[in-house]
Amino acid sequence: MPGDRRQFLRSTGSAFAAFAAAGCAARAVGAAGVAATDDYGALVPDPQGILDLPQGFSYRELSSLGDAMGDGGTVPDKADGMGCFDLGNGEWALVRNHELLAQDDSGGASGPAFDTVARSLVPLAGGTTTIVLDRATLDVKRQYRSLAGTIRNCAGGITPWGSWLTCEEDVSTPNGNINQSHGWVFEVPANAERQVDPVPLKAMGRFNHEAACVDPATGIVYMTEDRNDSLLYRFIPLVPGDLGQGGRLQALEVFDIPDTRNWEGSAIAVGYPVPGRWIDLDNVASPDDDLRRRGAAAGATVFARGEGIWMGDREFFFTATSGGAARQGQVFRMQPAGSVEVLELFYESSDAEAYSFGDNLTIAPDGHLIICEDQYSAVVDNHLRGITPDGKAYAFGRLRLQTEPAGACFSPDGRTLFVNAYSPTRTLAITGPWKWLVS
Fold first, then answer.
1. Nearest by Cα to 370 from 308, 282, 425
2. What are the φ/ψ torsions at residue 122 (nearest 5 degrees)?
């Protein structure tokens, strides 16, 4: 082990102590443990054939493909990542991604756009829509397109300053059809009443973006990448809260664990925290789409399709969709600690019945994770999976449609879980006897 690493590991003692004090010490957890308690019980078949939920829970449909919007357009398809914001004055806003390709129907997108389809000079179909709700009734007050001209807006993340970071999971380059390079992060203020000017945040890197979360204590943005050989990134802004001012992009290096995928033996064990540090990346605009490969060559650690990520209380969780020996998925936990980071493999599935291809995730008020499964097989059987704070998985919901659940997020008061059915677009609001409301 090089001398600088020995010194670094000696210096991590206090970080490990803090991590253990926060409940992150090694846990005796089965790789695919299924909770016998702490869940919500058996799922009740939905007579509408849309979403099975536990006894006492129900949903209502807020918005669906083709609904008329207030700007003259209609609700587009492929609803994916989503965040919920308190606008004040009794209103909440859902900012919702649409993972649309250049050739997809935009639902009538108009106004400012980052890129156009050159042959017809219309905006590219990707982007976001915003749904404004009455917080007391959950009635839709208005909905409209809030970003256009992007491609495959997969997931993103909420910011502490009231905006949504929407991420392109596409690295297309100008080809006679489209006019701009893609693979960027864009910012959409939650209170924007119309389409915003689409400004790519290029200092945050060009890669196959998936999702983002922000540490409210520092303004640092953590980002995932949906590739089989992806990295975990962080962006340190020059001005916290003003990402457009630029900053520094880095990738995580976990010492002595170059590969967390566990595809060829167990390189990282469930429940045991390991130290890491961040390494600087250069040429982050990456015209050759090689940022992850250059980062790995410099020592950054590889993950299996990093997807959903969500900031909790001084820690964040993220999914690796195809990680693990069974390639059914992993969930990682990290506590930001400045120059020293401590990573934990929080959960790894060895059984598709327990957990399969977890994608978007959010954190419930009681610390449970709610994760959207995204596996496509002959018979789609995607669930909303809960994972308890001690790392046990359970089924919270089952989507009966031949598509994936996506964009799970809680209302600011913790009473409503919002979730999308990807295609055809449906945005649902789930309410019921949440444990933190009835205990």
1. 308
2. -110, 155
User: Does residue 344 fall inside a structural domain?
Assistant: no
**Residue 355, in any domain of the structure:** yes
**pLDDT per residue as tens digits for the range 263-292:** 998 999 999 999 999 999 999 999 999 999
Amino acid, single-letter form, for residue 114: F
The whole domain housing 372 covers 31-64+351-439
Decide: pTM greater than 0.70.
Answer: yes
Give yes or no for residue 30 having a pLDDT over 80. Answer: no
Strands (E), 35-158: 43-44, 51-54, 58-64, 79-88, 91-98, 116-117, 122-123, 126-134, 140-150, 153-158
Distance CA 406, CA 80 (A): 5
What pLDDT, in 10s, does the model give residues 301-350? 999 999 999 999 999 999 999 999 999 999 999 998 766 789 999 999 99
Tokens of 85: 């914001």
- As a whole number of angstroms, the distance between CA 95 and CA 125 comes to 16
Domain presence at residue 60: yes
Helix (H) or strand (E) holding 399: strand 393-399
Q: What is the dihedral of CA 170, 296, 371, 45, to 10 degrees?
A: 70
Q: What is the pLDDT of residues 217-265, one digit of tens each?
A: 999 999 999 999 999 999 999 999 999 999 999 999 999 999 999 999 8
CA separation for the pair 226, 211 (Å, rounded): 9
**Residue 422 maps to a domain:** yes
Give the total number of structural domains in the chain: 1
Terminal Cα-to-Cα distance of the chain (whole angstroms): 50
Distant-in-sequence contacts of 52-55, Cβ < 8 A, 24+ apart = 52/397, 52/398, 52/400, 53/396, 53/397, 53/430, 53/432, 54/396, 54/397, 54/432
- Distance (Å, rounded) from C-alpha 63 to C-alpha 421? 10
Helix (H) or strand (E) holding 383: strand 383-387
